Each structure stands twice: as structure tokens, then as C-alpha cells.
Amino acid sequence: MNHPVEHYVGRFAPSPSGPLHAGSLVAAMASYLDAKAHDGRWLLRMEDIDEARSAAGAAADIVHTLAALGMQWDGPIRVQSESLPDYQAACARLDGLVYPCGCTRREIADSGVGIAADGAAIYPGTCRAGLAPGKIARALRVRVPDAGTASEFIQFEDRWLGRQSQYLAREAGDFVLKRADGYWAYQLAVVVDDALQGVTHVVRGADLLESTARQIYLQRLLGYPVPVYLHVPLVCTADGEKLSKQHGAQALDLQQPLPELQRAAGFLGLGTLPATSVADFWPQAQQAWLQRLQQQR
Ligand code: GLU
Fold this sequence. Notes:
Layout: E1 9-12, H1 22-37, E2 41-46, H2 58-68, E3 78-79, H3 84-93, E4 98-101, H4 105-111, E5 139-142, E6 153-158, E7 162-167, H5 168-171, E8 175-178, H6 186-196, E9 201-205, H7 212-222, E10 228-232, H8 257-267, H9 278-296
Parallel strand pairs: 1-2, 2-3, 9-10
Antiparallel strand pairs: 4-5, 5-8, 6-7
């Protein structure tokens, strides 16, 4: 994998629901190091599509933190809440495969079709052939190929985790593109953004591994190139939860940036780097990242 990549565009795409913490720094660092190690561009995108979950000031705080940690992004920052017409246009291109759905979360859970790989209940297909009588359209869903068909099967090579696959109908089901609360869904927004930003390499946390097959499916439907994926392990709390603001993650200590960077590098298996300053840290970490990827294979 470490032969030179002719054209590399990577990105970091935080959801500004709070300040950057030790878990999000790992994803930021991995995507940054991979881009730099391949002489690529590293873009920044604010995933504030779910405005209800976005915290005031968090986007500015993340931008400030990245800069303070010595991570410089290329080009303008893409902001999802300012890109709504792009999601609308992409959804319109899926006409014929997208249908309105009037089912509530409870109805879907009660249908007992099964639990998707991401923990949500699999949609039983109730509104596939038209809204059931008496129902009002709440969300928009995209149809996935039927169970048992060859096109249901999505496979990709993860650069960290190796070959991954998912049976879309059986493990995900028809999924939401526009949510009942009116927001565009993450799956659609991320695919449109990655394509419009020309992203060739996605490096992100393993909590998104289960989303990748659905994203590849949308990329194929929309005629977008499929990026190369790498999912890094998640930083977890002592009781095994993903480290997040809800699970007590602290903001990074910008008075002491080097130990924060060293901790994230250690978590990525880059060892203890001898750097004594933030400026020294990055070239050493880049080198260690390339070596780490070689071991991973
Ligand atoms: N916004 C997502 C998050 O912060 C990341 C999306 C992605 O990298 O595809 O978890």
C-alpha cells in the first residue's frame, strides 16, 4: 500500500457536538498522517448536518485545536449545513430507488426482522410499494437489492482491517436518506461530500466500519468513485464504550499539546516518539505511521 499514490485527497470530518477529545484526536491524527505520508491533501469538513446535535462554538473550537496541535488542513472547510442543495440534488438523482416511509421507530423495531450491523432494527419494507394506508410520509429511504441477489453483497479491502463484506439486504436493509426530523442522513451527506471534495482515501474510526457498505452502495448508484478505506481502532472507556462527550471525554489540554499527541500516537501503535516539540513530532509520527502500516499488512 505504501507505494506512492499519484493523487491522494484525505479528510477529517468531525461532528461538532463538542470539543476534540482523545478519541477524535486519534481519527484526526490517523487521517492527517496518512495524507502527509502520501504527499496528499488533507481536507477538513464540519459534519453539522444534525443541527440539533451540534454545540455552539464547537466547530470553531475544533478548528482552533487542530491548528494548536500543528495540523494544517488544505483549502476551505466544507460545512454540511451550508451544503444542503447538494444533498437534495443527489437524492433527486436516485429517483425510482427512493421512497417515502411512514413507519415509526417502534413499528420497525416491533416488526422483528432483525438487528442491523450498526445496532438499529432492519427495515421490514412496509412502505416499499407505497405508503401503507393512513400513514404520512416521515422519512425517505433508499431501496437496497433484494436478499439473495448478487448485488446485495458489498465487499471492500480495508487497509487496516483487511477484507470486509456486508449483505446489504440482510445486514442493513433499506436505509434512511432523509430523516423524519427533516435532516439529511449522515450516509447520504458523507457520500456526497466525499465525492464533491474529491476524497480518494477515507481514514476514520472503526465505529463507521458498518456504514461503509451502504456508502459504497450509494457511490455506485450515484456514479461516484469509491474511495479507499482505512478504519482505525476506537479509543474506549474502561467499560468498553466508545470514548465520546456523552461518556465523559475531556477536552484536550492545549497547554500541553505534546503529551496529547504522544498519547494518540501510542494508541495508534506508533510507539514512543523522541520528539521534544510539536514541530518535531509530526515528521517522526509520519515515518512511524508508514512503518506501522507495513506491519499491519
Ligand atoms: N462525522 C463523523 C464522526 O465524527 C465522521 C464521519 C466520517 O468520517 O465518515 O464520527
